[in-house]
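FAQ

Q: What does a record look like?
A: Structure on top, sequence underneath. For example:
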């Protein structure tokens, strides 16, 4: 049996059926790329790889979290085209909460409340495409402060405060279209969030140069993590896919699959090599300071020129349409995955430094190995014990390989650097090992985020869930331990040890929280004490209704307005009991919001229909929760 035919998973299809299905999937995916991949397959053909059975007999690390017990890790998942984030417990894989970001969320009223609308901005789109979520770091360790996530769909980046797990800032990225790769500066701390612009367009993008793709370009963006303003951008050749930072704070690199500047599939696969472009942060800052920049759509955003020939950047040719780029937790290497090449390219941060110092001549001198792993390598993660784990999309496998051995093989030694190939179900994109984005990689758990689930779950209609598989990597062998259906393609995730995040998370709102400070200021102008007052303030055709909520009553069980008034209802939950959340749903007005203990939330709408409209509490807060309601009386 050849390596890709490995099977034997309990409950799996017969080997023969499965092989044909796997082949079919691979073929379907290859599609127009067949020519390039045929070459790649040829390369892999003669290779001896140390595959092991996909499912080991011995019991894996237990994922069993008994009732009342807590998980060891928080898992933070992007939500793909749902536009949200999700927080899971690992290893149970129980979903703990969703964090709406770019999407409308009726559960808590995200996109409905004034507080969320202030974050989203006026007339903001209410869909998103979140791929890459990363936590802020200090000296290469998670610091529990912020999460950052991209919106490929609408060219935005959001920040989520970890203490309340709420999105608190969203920035539209100018001079760009489609923000894909996103990473945080690790060292000395997350000063910048780096964002990749995937699609090349004309600038300004106002109807000029439509048919002249040579004039299109893409930019690399550094966002200030505290202000969430764009600090600077770099004009690049080609496009930008994924990005990664080093462990010194000096460099950040991005993969480019469209070095061709093409606008169609064949064109984007034309070159045998595209590249990884590295940015020299200090030099870029100096160039900005020296005024060596232009501006495009936003006069406040300096754009320096980092195209070929610039001393701000280093373009390292790598094979072919590279995708993922991931730094090893020892701070030494950064590995770009070949996608249409069966190889990954291992580059040395130290050599990148030497190149910028002028000590190396050829950009390829920073490459220390280019091991062949299998078909469709997309992303790599690490166990902190010198092993790398690369997803093979087309082979539907995770390949575990040893970095030191790959370096020895690159020097001509006869060593097998591949440790194991594990079948996953099916077609993995990202993978991520626990704590692997930091110096604290602990090599316990690996998630393989698989794009197809086929028949792994009960059928729920033509749209199948993705399958995020949990794999135990604590021993010598990878062991698949659970299948987990997920909605609308989370691309990436990370796992952080419970104690590192738990201490930063609030269990009850602080009354001084900036999240609702503007609402508090509005109340103050009206002479309202939000914690005790229940009052209606009329201001022409604007009516502001202030009330408290204490289970099981609202401070106001009725208020009266005139048809056509613009009504703002502001509610402050004065219950002290943790977990005692109230809701406010106004019948037939499309309004629902959540108010957790000591939170103030508000919503503004037009009372456009005369009549009696009940409002009621949507969170089951008390035995008399159903009775927790009141009337809005709208006079004709
Ligand atoms: S990146 S797999 Cu690979 Cu956005 Cu999705
Ligand atoms: Cu308050 Cu239910
Ligand atoms: Ca290409």
């Amino acid at each position: 049996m050849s390596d890709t035919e490995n099977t034997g998973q309990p409950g799996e299809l017969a080997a023969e059926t499965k092989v044909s299905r796997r082949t079919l999937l691979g073929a379907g995916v290859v599609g127009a790329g067949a020519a390039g991949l045929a070459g790649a397959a040829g390369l892999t053909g003669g290779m001896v790889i140390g595959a092991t059975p996909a499912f080991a007999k011995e019991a894996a690390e237990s994922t069993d979290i008994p009732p009342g017990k807590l998980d060891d890790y928080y898992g933070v998942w992007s939500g793909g085209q749902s536009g949200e984030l999700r927080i899971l417990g690992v290893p149970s894989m129980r979903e703990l909460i969703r964090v709406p970001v770019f999407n409308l969320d009726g559960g808590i009223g995200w996109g409905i409340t004034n507080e969320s609308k202030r974050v989203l901005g006026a007339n903001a789109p209410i869909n998103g495409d979140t791929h890459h979520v990363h936590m802020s770091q200090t000296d290469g360790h998670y610091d529990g402060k912020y999460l950052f996530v991209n919106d490929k769909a609408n060219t935005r980046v959001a920040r989520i405060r970890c203490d309340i797990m709420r999105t608190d800032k969203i920035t539209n990225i100018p001079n760009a279209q489609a923000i894909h790769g996103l990473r945080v500066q690790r060292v000395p701390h997350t000063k910048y969030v780096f964002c990749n612009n995937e699609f090349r367009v004309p600038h300004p993008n106002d109807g000029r140069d439509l048919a002249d793709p040579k004039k299109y370009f893409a930019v690399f963006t550094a966002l200030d993590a505290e202000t969430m303003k764009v600090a600077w951008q770099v004009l690049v050749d080609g496009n930008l896919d994924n990005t990664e930072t080093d462990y010194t704070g000096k460099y950040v690199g991005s993969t480019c699959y469209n070095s061709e500047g093409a606008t169609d599939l064949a064109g984007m696969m034309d070159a045998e090599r595209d590249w990884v472009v590295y940015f020299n942060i200090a030099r870029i800052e100096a160039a900005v300071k020296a005024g060596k920049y232009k501006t495009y759509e936003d006069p406040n955003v300096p754009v320096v020129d980092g195209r070929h020939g610039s001393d701000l950047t280093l373009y390292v040719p790598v094979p072919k349409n590279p995708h993922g780029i991931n730094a090893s937790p020892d701070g030494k290497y950064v590995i770009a995955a070949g996608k249409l090449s069966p190889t990954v390219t291992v580059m040395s941060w130290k050599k990148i430094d030497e190149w910028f110092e002028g000590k190396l001549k050829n950009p390829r001198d920073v490459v220390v190995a280019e091991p062949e792993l299998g078909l469709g390598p997309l992303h790599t993660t690490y166990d902190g014990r010198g092993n790398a784990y690369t997803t093979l999309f087309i082979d539907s496998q995770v390949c575990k390989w040893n970095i030191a051995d790959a370096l020895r093989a690159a020097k001509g030694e006869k060593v097998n650097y591949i440790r194991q190939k594990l079948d996953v179900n099916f077609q993995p994109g990202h993978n991520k090992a626990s704590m692997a984005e930091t110096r604290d990689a602990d090599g316990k758990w690996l998630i393989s985020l698989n794009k197809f689930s086929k028949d792994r779950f009960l059928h729920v209609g033509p749209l199948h869930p993705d399958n995020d598989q949990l794999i135990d990597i604590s021993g010598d062998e990878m062991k698949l331990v659970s299948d987990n259906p997920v909605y609308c393609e989370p691309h990436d995730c990370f796992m952080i040890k419970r104690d590192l995040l738990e201490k930063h998370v609030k269990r009850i709102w602080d009354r001084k929280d900036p999240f609702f400070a503007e609402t508090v200021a509005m109340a103050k102008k009206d002479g309202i004490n939000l914690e005790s007052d229940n009052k209606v303030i009329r201001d022409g055709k604007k009516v502001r209704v202030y009330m408290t909520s204490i289970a099981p009553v609202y401070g106001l069980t009725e208020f009266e307005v005139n048809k056509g008034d613009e009504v703002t209802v502001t509610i402050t939950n004065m219950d002290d009991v943790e977990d005692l959340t109230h809701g406010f749903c106004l019948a037939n007005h499309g309004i629902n919001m959540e108010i957790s203990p000591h939170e103030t939330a508000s919503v503004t709408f037009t009372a456009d229909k005369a009549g009696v409209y009940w409002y009621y509490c949507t969170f089951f807060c008390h035995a008399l929760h159903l009775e927790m309601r009141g009337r809005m009386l709208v006079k004709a």
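Q: Is there anything notable about this one?
A: The longest strand covers residues 141-151.
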